[in-house]
Amino acid sequence: MFRIIENSESSLEIKRSKFITKLYYVTTVQEATTLLQHIRKLYKDATHCCYAYIIDQEKKSSDDGEPGGTAGVPMLDLLDKRQMNYILCVVIRYFGGIKLGAGGLVRAYSNCVRIALEQATLKELEAGYRVCLHTEFSKENQLIQLLGKNNILKKEYRDDLYIEAIVSYDLLQTLQAFSLEIIENVWI
């Protein structure tokens, strides 16, 4: 599986219709929903805002008024075939006055996604774990150095130091010296 490294945008013109494709790295359905609401407000004058996302096992797409199965489904199929995860793809269309027909729409939306993915920088995902750790306050610096600041999801000072983090398999082995609980398997 793969994910994009950073959000990106590309555009394409087909028979006077303008297609703007946006790729977003998202980790939750709520994050995707919030972004979609923002995009609809930002591009409120667009004819269509079609989308597809894959977030772990959650997959969803929308034709947003295009004929059924001509936009969202082809977008989702391409994301699936390219083994993408943690991705929201939105194609914004400004109608140019020439109808493309069902086949033309499928090709147009598929091409938009294909071009956007070709231009994006991808990272292959590896299996990882979401964990919680309990330790003495005196070991905080050591633990943070091992985890790296970007991997820490939550840090709380309770009776002891409580940290939730995302870690690789190799780092999981290193952290066995601490009080460790695996919350869930994730892709990182």
**Low-confidence segments, ≥5 residues, pLDDT <50?**
none
Q: Please report the number of helical segments.
A: 5
For the biggest sheet, the summary is:
5 strands, antiparallel
Categorize the overall geometry: elongated
* Relative strand content: 35-45%
Give helix % range. 25-40%
The average pLDDT score comes to: 94
Task: Indicate the topology.
Elements: E1 2-4, E2 8-14, E3 17-25, H1 29-42, E4 48-55, E5 58-62, H2 72-81, E6 87-94, H3 101-119, E7 122-124, E8 127-135, H4 140-147, E9 152-157, E10 161-168, H5 169-174, E11 179-187
Antiparallel strand pairs: 1-7, 2-3, 3-6, 4-5, 4-6, 8-10, 8-11, 9-10
Helix pairs in contact: 2-3
Q: What would a concise description of this structure say?
A:
It contains five helices and eleven strands. It has 188 residues and is α+β, with helices and mostly antiparallel strands. It has a five-stranded antiparallel sheet, sandwiched between helices.
